[in-house]
């Protein structure tokens, strides 16, 4: 049998998630996570999925390169070393691909240079993605390394949604436009939602709510993205774990002129010290719900602001799409937090939206409907699988160029 294993690396600002899949049968062989990179108490969790064996390890991991080497060692212990001839490619999540990359792309020096050029518009993500790619290339220079871009799915947005209403020349010179992110997830979840409805992606309009630590909404018409909430960078849109999402841009001038803050300080404020963490000190929805149950007013207000923004985007995307077949909740918060799903659609009956309390309370890792049976617009929980989608696209590309 020809080799058919693909390793997927999803390098975030302080973590690396990875999965090894056999694409001949879709079996996941190993998966893991290195988090708190750069700290003394970094943590590695590795699972050998066919046996169920799990290894965990806590200790200092200095940087992303060290993290990559540590995860390569764990794979090696399970007989899945990066030197394995079974491996056909390594697929990398790359967050910002600008307008250049609309498809998965085999990485060479030109592609690396372009990803590097885009660092100013994805400062939390692209540098980590680059280190992941360079380290993997050094370990396996002979293997195709494929970049799968978060922005790719959104390149179908019409100009009316993608352009900001600013001077066109300035916008074009500095490539200021709305790119959108989490596209791999929006693509996967919108397709999986169509499947759940028993329809082809071309035949349905779906609103996808990707609510993780970073969060974004998208409006998908017939399988193609027509609008999304993130913009030039992953800062626009919904309230997130540590990011503000939408604000009046004049807040920035005000903080600079009146507050005496530097641009870098404001950048850090809006990207890392805002959102849920800025509002109540916690960015984990589990902790926020626990505090609400204890009567904590700050946590309550943070939750209410989060929901208010989410509702506005649901309403906006109903308007953008005209007719909506389903809205799908996904990622850490969307898949697990029933109170968020309930609150987000509460009062939207006139838009055809409601959830069934009992169905919403069910915990499952399977795609499922949580709206009443006769609902005009279906509400679904659809677990995302960015790693599978990256592996699928990576494998298809290397098979095609065989
Ligand atoms: N059981 C749960 N209930 C509520 N929220 C949860 C639960 N599990 C995870 N979350 C939320 O999901 C977030 C992480 O989502 P995830 O999609 O893994 O994020 P990312 O990929 O951006 O790191 C956590 O910060 C937390 O807020
Ligand atoms: C683009 C983005 O926000 O990604 P993440 O949710 O992984 O931070
Ligand atoms: Mg994520």
UniProtKB/TrEMBL annotation:
The active site is at 150 (proton donor/acceptor). The keyword Kinase applies. Pathway: Metabolic intermediate biosynthesis; acetyl-CoA biosynthesis; acetyl-CoA from acetate: step 1/2. It comes from the Bacteria. It catalyses: acetate + ATP = acetyl phosphate + ADP. InterPro entries: Ac/propionate_kinase, Aliphatic_acid_kin_short-chain, Aliphatic_acid_kinase_CS, ATPase_NBD. The record marks 182, 243 as: Transition state stabilizer. Mg(2+) binds at residues 10, 386. Mg(2+). Can also accept Mn(2+). Signal peptide: none annotated. The keyword Acyltransferase does not apply. Substrate binds at residue 93. It is an enzyme of class 2 (transferase). Its cofactor is Mg(2+); Mn(2+). Keywords: ATP-binding, Cytoplasm, Kinase, Magnesium, Metal-binding, Nucleotide-binding, Transferase. Its EC number is 2.7.2.1. It is found in: Cytoplasm. ATP binds at residues 17, 210-214, 284-286, 332-336. One of its GO terms (molecular function) is acetate kinase activity. Homodimer. NCBIfam families: ackA (TIGR00016). Belongs to the acetokinase family. Catalyzes the formation of acetyl phosphate from acetate and ATP. Can also catalyze the reverse reaction. This is Acetate kinase. It comes from Streptomyces pseudovenezuelae. The lineage of its organism: Bacteria, Bacillati, Actinomycetota, Actinomycetes, Kitasatosporales. The gene is ackA.
């Amino acid at each position: 049998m020809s080799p058919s294993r693909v390793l997927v690396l999803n390098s975030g600002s302080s973590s690396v998630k990875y999965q090894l899949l056999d694409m001949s049968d879709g079996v996941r062989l190993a998966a893991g996570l290195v988090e708190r990179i750069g700290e003394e108490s970094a943590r590695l969790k590795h699972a050998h999925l066919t046996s169920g064996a799990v290894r965990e390890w806590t200790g200092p991991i200095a940087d992303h390169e060290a993290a990559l080497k540590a995860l390569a060692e764990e794979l090696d212990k399970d007989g899945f070393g990066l030197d394995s001839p079974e491996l056909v490619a390594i697929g990398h999540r790359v967050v910002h691909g600008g307008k250049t990359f609309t498809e998965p792309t085999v990485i060479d020096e030109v592609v690396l240079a372009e990803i590097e050029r885009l660092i100013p518009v994805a400062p939390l993500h692209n540098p980590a993605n680059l280190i992941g790619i360079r380290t993997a290339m050094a370990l396996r220079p002979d293997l195709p390394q494929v970049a799968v871009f978060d922005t790719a799915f959104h390149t179908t947005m019409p100009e009316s949604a993608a352009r900001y209403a600013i001077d066109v020349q300035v916008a074009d010179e500095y490539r200021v436009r709305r790119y959108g992110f989490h596209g791999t997830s929006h693509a996967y979840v919108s397709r999986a939602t169509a499947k759940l409805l028993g329809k082809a992606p071309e035949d349905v309009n779906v609103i996808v709510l990707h609510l993780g630590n970073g969060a974004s909404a998208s409006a998908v018409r017939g399988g193609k993205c027509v609008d999304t909430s993130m913009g030039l960078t992953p800062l626009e849109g919904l309230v997130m774990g540590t990011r503000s999402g939408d604000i009046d841009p004049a807040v920035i001038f005000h903080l600079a002129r009146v507050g005496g803050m530097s641009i870098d300080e404001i950048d850090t404020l809006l990207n890392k010290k805002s959102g849920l963490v800025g509002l109540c000190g916690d960015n984990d929805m589990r902790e926020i719900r626990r505090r609400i149950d204890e009567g904590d007013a700050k946590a309550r207000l943070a939750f209410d602001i989060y929901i208010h923004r989410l509702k506005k985007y649901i309403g906006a995307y109903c308007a953008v799409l005209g007719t909506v077949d389903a809205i799908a909740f996904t990622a850490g918060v969307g898949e697990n937090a029933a109170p968020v799903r309930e609150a987000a659609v509460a009062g939207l009956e006139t838009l055809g939206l409601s959830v069934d309390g009992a169905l919403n309370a069910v915990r499952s890792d399977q795609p499922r409907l949580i709206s009443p049976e006769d609902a005009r617009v279906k509400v679904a929980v659809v677990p995302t699988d960015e790693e599978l989608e990256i592996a699928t696209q990576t494998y298809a590309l290397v098979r095609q160029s065989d």
